[in-house]
What we know:
Helix content: 40-55%
Order of helices and strands: HHEEEEEH
Radius of gyration: 32 Å
Number of domains: 2
Strand content: 15-25%
Low-confidence stretches: none
Structural class: alpha+beta
Strand order of the largest sheet: 3-2-1-4-5
Largest sheet: 5 strands, antiparallel
Amino acid sequence: xxxxxxxxxxxxxxxxxxxxxxxxxxxxxxxxxxxxxxxxxxxxxxxxxxxxxxxxxxxxxxxxxxxxxxxxxxxxxxxxxxxxxxxxxxxxxxxxxxxxxxxxxxxxxxxxxxxxxxxxxxxxxxxxxxxxxxxxxxxxxxxxxxxxxxxxxxxxxxxxxxxxxxxxxxxxxxxxxxxxxxxx
Length: 184
C-alpha cells in the first residue's frame, strides 16, 4: 500500500497543497495525452497490421512457379577492382513462346547450365514469392509504426508543455526568492 501511495504522489494524484497550478496543468496534459494514446493506438495498430497481413498473404499466394531456364550466354563487365558477371537465360513459357532475360550471375556459371528462376502465369520472370516469416515481420513493423504514429505527436505536445511549465516553475522559483530577499 505504501508503494501505491508513492506512485500516486509521484504522478501528482494527491491533494498536496504545495502543488502549483502549473504542476496541475502539466499533469492534466500528460493524462489527456496518455488517454488519447490509449484510445487511438490500438485501433490504428489493428487496422494497419490487418491490412499488412492481408497484403502479405496475397503476396505469398501469388500465382508463380519455379522453372529451370538454360544459360545461353554469359558476359563479364567491370573495371579495375570491380567485376560483374551476367547470364542470359532462355526458357519456353506455357504459351510456347521462347523467353529470355539477363540476370546477375556467379562467376562459375557457364553456357548450357540450368538456372532455377520464378515466373508468373504468363511466363514472365518475377521475384521470389514472399515467405510467411516476411509477412509476419511486415505485420509487426506496421503495428509498431502505427503505434509510433499515434504516440509521437502526443509525446511531442507533452514535452513542449512540460518545457513551458518548467520555464514557468523556474520563474516562480525566482519570484519566490526575490520576495524572500525583500522581506529579510
